[in-house]
UniProtKB/TrEMBL annotation:
Keyword Transferase recorded: yes
Keyword Transferase: yes
InterPro entries: Sensor-like_sf (IPR029151)
GO molecular function, one term: kinase activity
Biological source species: Candidatus Methanoperedens nitratireducens
Membrane-crossing segments per the record: 12-33, 188-207
Descriptive protein name: Sensory histidine kinase CreC
Amino acid sequence: MKLNIQKKSIITKFSIYSAIIFILLGFVMNYALSAKIEDLTIQRAIITTANHAQQNAGNYLTSDFFSNSDYMKNKDTFEKYYQDVKTNEIVRIKIFDTNGNIIYSDIEDLVGQRFSDNKELNEALAGEIKVEIKRNLDKEENIFEKREYKALMEIYAPIKMGSETVGVVEVYHTLDDIETQVNDSTKLVTSFIFIGFAIIYILLNAWRQ
């Protein structure tokens, strides 16, 4: 009798410890997979958006557009380019020449301005696709964006004519759809993780008994 009580006590402790371990493992795996899902979703959005902006630039823009100091001369063509690039997720655009001057923006007051503290822009002018995710729009250049949005992803895509980078297009991508996709995927993964662990836990305890 005493032996049976001790056996039941051991099984009970084992069940409790197993449950705690499974729950902790579930949270750790969920956190790691959520971060991976978010990273993959963002990377896909960056590549798709940058390619979209670069390919459409070839349909509208030439190198002369980026060397003309009369920014308003090509406004109509820039507008057509923006309308072609714009999507539900792309809510703003800035186009820079090689000196970092804004030669076009859908916010006309920004045209002709230059922001010297933009690291991502300088790296994009060197030929790299760069991205900056802003959960807090506190830079001087984001004075207009922070009136409408809480967070944005800024994607800097170099515009090349041949092998030469003639300028950069910066597109502002909302994070709403990305966060929705990440949340939906995370919920699905979380469900599978905890259902899987629950099944293993039940089977393991059935075997122990």
